[in-house]
Specification:
Elements (H helix, E strand, L loop, with lengths): L2 E5 L18 E5 L7 E7 L4 E9 L5 E10 L1
Parallel strand pairs: 1-2
Antiparallel strand pairs: 3-4, 4-5
Length: 73
């Protein structure tokens, strides 16, 4: 990854990698038509307890609601 965040409208086609196995050069994507809207983390501890956390973002990348829950199987 080149940067943590970026605006896709700042890139031309040369800014994207050429193979299908490589990724868009930003972790957090901001654009008018596509972008990061949430991130999800799933953890499982040694006793089998699952925790799922999700952070929502606005189209400008500002943090919105964060939710989490946990359960044991």
């Amino acid at each position: 990854m080149k940067q943590d965040s970026g605006d896709l409208s700042d890139l031309d086609m040369a800014g994207f990698k050429e193979t299908e196995h490589e990724e868009i050069p930003y972790r957090f994507i901001k654009s008018d038509y596509y972008g990061t809207r949430n991130t999800t983390i799933i953890t499982i501890n040694e006793t089998g307890e699952y925790k799922i956390s999700e952070q929502n973002f606005s189209e400008n990348g500002k943090k919105l609601e964060k939710t989490s829950f946990q359960f044991k199987l």
